[in-house]
């Protein structure tokens, strides 16, 4: 086992990784930017190294500085968290060339899944159902037009290198296609440095269902059930729950088994998530994320398994001790992402947290790195924490979540807590009757009502 792990991330996930390491008796080094010198991860870690200025490219994406920090502190392995360098194959190669272990999959698997066109091709080869769409990348507008006409509108143009819900264009009719195609390509180039785009049928009422998978270096592969992440805004997840309120036991076993078989065939090592759209009883592969995800705690809550500990064990070459027989899905878990944003306009609200109190009690977990007097820097994403609850069933989880949201105090900045209360109190959420378009539709209705009233 590793003696010392370097954490190449910030915020709640840096602290989360630190906690897993401590329980395993592993020393931690956290790297940080000058803007994060007072972070909770820096305070908690055994060692910390300042690697550059506030801008991500000067610090959290500064591969040379991170490797230097690993060298001078004598770290054995590097955990990338999510975002930043977690899915950067080039970085993984550098880490390995310098004699450290990357806590994550191989560079080749990251490469293969990072390009969405290649990922979809791989999924087909592995026997996974995919969203109907273009056969690979669209080279010309004429090809886009032909594909769209064959499939029928609406269609979705996606960037091959896209991520975080960015780089997608919905096209509802032929006359809007040309502009959307041109915009998609130039935005893809500007955002991801690659103007490759492809097309998919735009599904009208799908749910987002993803399967947590794990592989080890000994050829074992398992799945840990699904997460339903259909409550989204601008293709970004807002609320996540496990299990999904709609899947039957049969559907769960089917898609879980299919996903585990696929990664076994692939020889995939580490944690990963296979994302599907689910509509009318059918699953469609969207993409695979080759890292730990923000919403991993809901899976931990219903399985009782620490996924970060498993990542570290697998990276160190240990065999997975988890198997079909000993993984049990118990009860229901829901996570809400608390962002420092105006809950109505979604404008970022950085600043100082004057008063902070985390909810507690049975079945309540608060993953956050903020504290009284913490200043949220304006340079990074706006998530200040994740509130996760577990209950014996979904109703109990919802009641507990409402209670925990009301107990949480984050004063000094605006947060999305009121939005979450509004979501979980809606009749559709209670019955589990929602899809990926639900939240935006409800927000639009609410804005309309407000306009009428004034
Ligand atoms: P990213 O890597 O940017 O997160 P994804 O491919 O995972 O991109 O898609 C993000 C979200 O966009 C999905 O969760 C879903 O809400 C929506 N989406 C993606 N593909 C489709 C599609 N074919 N039809 C409808 N919605 C889609």
How does the major sheet shape up? 8 strands, antiparallel
Mean pLDDT value: 96
At the first level of CATH, the class of the largest domain is Alpha Beta
- Overall shape: globular
Strand order of the largest sheet: 13-12-9-10-11-14-19-17
| CATH homologous superfamily designation of the largest domain | ATP-grasp fold, B domain
Q: Quick one: how many beta strands?
A: 20
Ligands bound here? Answer: adenosine-5'-diphosphate
Please estimate the helix content. Answer: 25-40%
- Secondary structure category: alpha+beta
CATH T-level fold name of the largest domain:
D-amino Acid Aminotransferase, Chain A, domain 1
Q: What is the CATH architecture annotation of the largest domain? A: 2-Layer Sandwich
The low-confidence parts are none
Q: Compute the number of helices.
A: 15
Beta-strand residue percentage: 25-35%
Alpha-carbon distance between the termini? 63 Å
Q: Rg, please?
A: 22 Å
Kindly give the count of domains: 3
Oligomer class: single chain
């Amino acid at each position: 086992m590793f003696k010392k792990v370097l954490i190449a991330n910030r915020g709640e996930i840096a602290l989360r990784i630190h906690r897993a390491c401590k329980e395993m008796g592993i020393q931690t080094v956290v790297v940080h930017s000058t803007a994060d010198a007072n972070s909770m991860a820096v305070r908690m870690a055994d060692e910390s190294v300042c690697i550059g200025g506030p801008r991500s490219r000067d610090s959290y994406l500064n591969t040379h500085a991170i490797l230097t920090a690993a060298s001078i502190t004598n770290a054995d392995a590097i955990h990338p968290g999510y975002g930043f360098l977690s899915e950067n194959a080039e970085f993984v190669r550098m880490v390995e060339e310098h004699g450290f272990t990357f806590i994550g999959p191989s560079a080749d698997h990251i490469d293969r899944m990072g390009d969405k066109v290649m990922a979809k091709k791989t999924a087909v080869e592995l026997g996974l159902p995919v969203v109907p769409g273009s056969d690979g990348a669209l080279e010309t507008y004429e090809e886009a037009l032909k594909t769209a006409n064959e499939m029928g509108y609406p269609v979705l143009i996606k960037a091959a290198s896209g991520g975080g819900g960015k780089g997608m264009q919905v096209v509802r009719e032929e006359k809007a296609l040309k502009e959307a195609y041109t915009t998609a390509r130039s935005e893809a180039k500007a955002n991801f440095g690659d103007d490759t785009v492809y097309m998919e049928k735009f599904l009208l009422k799908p749910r987002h269902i993803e399967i947590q998978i794990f592989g080890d270096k000994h050829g074992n592969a398992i799945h840990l059930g699904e997460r339903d992440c259909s409550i989204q805004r601008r293709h970004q997840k807002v609320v996540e729950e496990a299990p999904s309120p709609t899947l039957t036991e049969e559907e769960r076993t089917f898609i879980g088994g299919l996903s585990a078989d696929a990664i076994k065939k692939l020889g995939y090592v580490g944690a990963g998530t296979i994302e599907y759209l689910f509509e009318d009883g059918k699953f469609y592969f969207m993409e695979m994320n080759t890292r730990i995800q923000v919403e991993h705690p809901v899976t931990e809550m219903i399985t009782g398994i620490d996924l970060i500990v498993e990542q570290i064990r697998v990276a160190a070459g240990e065999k997975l001790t988890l198997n079909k027989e000993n993984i049990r899905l118990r009860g229901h878990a829901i996570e809400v992402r608390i962002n420092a944003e105006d809950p109505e306009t979604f404008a970022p609200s950085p600043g100082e947290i004057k008063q902070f109190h985390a909810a507690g009690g049975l079945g309540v977990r608060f993953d956050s790195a903020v504290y009284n007097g913490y200043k949220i820097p304006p340079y990074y994403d706006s998530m200040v924490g994740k509130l996760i609850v577990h209950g014996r069933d979904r109703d109990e989880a919802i009641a507990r979540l409402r209670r925990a949201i009301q107990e949480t105090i984050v004063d000094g900045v605006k947060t999305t807590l009121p939005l979450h209360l509004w979501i979980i109190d809606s009749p559709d959420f209670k019955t589990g009757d929602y899809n990926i378009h639900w939240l935006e539709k409800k927000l639009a209705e609410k804005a309309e009502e407000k306009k009428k009233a004034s």
